[in-house]
Design brief:
This protein is of the alpha+beta class. The protein is built from six helices and nine strands. Helix 1 crosses helix 2 and helix 4 runs antiparallel to helix 5. The longest helix is centred in the N-terminal third of the chain and has 19 residues.
Length: about 200
Amino acid sequence: MSEVIVHHWPRDRAAALAALIKGDAPVLLQFATPQTTQRDAARAAVRDALCVLLADYLGCAPEAVPLVSIPGQALRLDVPGALPGISVSHDAGISLVALNAHGASGIDVMRLEDLPDWREVASDYLGAAACRHIAASARQERAQIFAAAWTRMEARLKCLGLALTEWTPTLERLLERCGAQSFMPAPGVVATLAWRRTY
């Protein structure tokens, strides 16, 4: 995948549907959501929008879309073989959704901020190589490089259906099964899209 194309909701609804039907790459939706870390309103808005888009995709009414939402689990369509990869991520003011018609997907988004304990967090969860890379970066670039590494790890975990866990060589080999691409959906925000084709 050469470029991440972001479809802004609701402006790009038709283009997102066309890309979803075409199905040759994961489809990425971006939502403006409340500027808060409280995510209930963002979750509800994203689910409502997904029901509208998926109604067009499935050819049914939005209220008939069998979108299953269970706390702590990825959203899924209760339709055998239909759209296996749905992943959602929120941060203050932004929500992203990845939809993959041919396999799993993972998305993670993070606002840039200075993290005084970045070295400990990177060592525990990102591994020694990532920790060295972040440490070697210029101070003004460090937050962005950390965010890219963190969202890349989180997106790939989601893509594989794994919970957050500390870094091990075995985990790193598992994560390498996913393609991943980092990008900036908005100023001061870093995200990573991960995908895995299963058919």
